[in-house]
Amino acid sequence: MTQTIAARPPRSRLRLQEGGLIVVIFVLGLILTLCGGRVTRPRFETDAKGERHRVMVEENIFFNAQNLAQVAKDTSIIAIMAVGATFVIISGGIDLSVGAIYALASVLGAVVFRAYGPDGGHAGASPWLGILLGLAACVGTATLAGLINGGMIVALRVHPFIITLGTMTIFRGIAFVITDGQSVTGFPEAFRNLMRWEVSDGVFLMPVVVVIAVTVAGGTFLTRLAAGRRVYAVGGNELASAFSGINVGRVKLGVFVLSGLSAGVAAVLALGHYGGASSGDGQGYELNVIAAAVVGGASLSGGKGSALGALLGALVIQLINAGIVILHINQNYSQIIVGAVVIIAVVLDQFNNWLAKRRLLSK
Q1: Could you tell me which residues are beta bridge partners of residue 40?
Q2: In this predicted structure, what is the pLDDT of residue 14?
Q3: Which of 87, 100, 112, 141 could form a disulfide bond with 134, CB atoms 3.0-4.6 angstroms apart?
C-alpha cells in the first residue's frame, strides 16, 4: 500500500497547473489578437469555374489560419521533445543533450533519405522503402543516443548533468564529422508530401497530429501505467523507491531512452518540413525544451510534471516568441524573456512546495 501511494502522480496539483496554463495561453492569445493589428496579404481563391485567382484580403496579424498553423508547427517540434524531457525531469534528472540528439538524428536520417532521393544512389528504388529506412535511421539513432546517455548515467553513477553535457558535444561533433559541416538535402518527394500534408494553403496537419499523439501517449504512460507511477516515485524519493522494490536504474535508463525517442520523432517532422539537415540544427533547443517542461509544471527537484503540461508550456513559450515579433519588440530580448519566464516558473514551484510542506506540518 505504501509503494502504491508513493508512486501515484499528484493529479489534482497537475490539473490545477494545467488549468492555469490554459488561462495564460488564452490571455496571451487575446492580447496578441487585440494588439497585433491587421495586415493585407495575398490569398489564392477558387471561383465557380474552378480557376484560382490571387486576391488581397485584410486579416488579423495573429488570429488567422496561416499564422496559427505556423505557431502550431513551431510549437510541435519543441513540445514533442519537451514531453520526453519531462519524463527525465520527473525522475529527478536532466538532459542537456536533447538538441544534439535531434541534430545527429536529423543528419543520419537525411543521409538515408538523400540516398533514395532524386539524385541518390538508390533513386530507382521504391520511395516508400527509402522513407521507411530514413524514419528507422532517424528515430533509431535518437533512441540509441538516449540509451547511451541512460546507460552511462546508471553504470557510472554520475549525475545526468555531467553525462549529458559531455554527450551534447560528442553527438553534435559526430553530426559535424558526418556532414563535414554541410547541409544534406535531396529527399524523396513522397516523404516531403507526407510530412507537408496540407488541409489548406500553408496549414499543415501532420505536426498537430503527431504532437497530440505523443502527448496522449506520454500522458497515458505517466498516469495509467505502473511504469509511469514508478517514474514519479523515483523522482519523489529515490532511496525510498529502491527500498520498496523499484529498479531505480531501469527507470532512469527508460526515461532517457524515451527522451531520445522524442527527439527522433521531432527530427522526422523537421526533416519533412525543412527538406534538409545540418550539424548546426537544434542549437539552443535544450534551453527551450527544458523551459517548456518547467513552465509546464515539471519540478527540477523531481516527482512532478505531466505530458500535457509540457505541451502547454511549449505553447506558452512559442506565443511569447511570436508576441515579440508581432508587437515589434526587439528580438534581442527574446532569450532574456524566456529565461525570466523559466526563473518565475521555478520560483513559483518552490513557493508551492513550501506551502505544501507548511500545510503538512500544520496537520
Answers
A1: 58
A2: 58
A3: 112
Taking only the tens place, the pLDDT of each residue in 218-268 is 999 999 999 999 999 999 999 999 999 999 999 999 999 999 999 999 999
Cell numbers 496561416 label which residue?
66
Of the candidates 318, 320, 337, the residue with the CA atom closest to the CA atom of residue 72? 318
Rg (CA), the chain: 22
Q: Which residues of 257-296 are buried (b: 16+ CB within 10 A; e: fewer)?
A: bbbbbbbbbbbbbbbbbbbbbbbebbeebbbbbbbbbbbb
Distance CA 261, CA 277 (A): 18
Nearest alpha-carbon partner for 96 in 289, 306, 280? 289
Classify 39 as helix, strand or coil: strand
Q: How many CB atoms lie within 10 A of CB 357?
A: 10
**What phi-psi label fits residue 339: left (phi over 0), alpha (psi between -120 and 50 degrees) or beta?**
alpha
> Which residues contact residue 294 at a Cβ distance below 8 angstroms, ignoring those fewer than 6 apart?
89, 300, 313, 342, 345, 346, 349
CA 21 – CA 295 distance, rounded (Å): 9
Length of the chain: 363
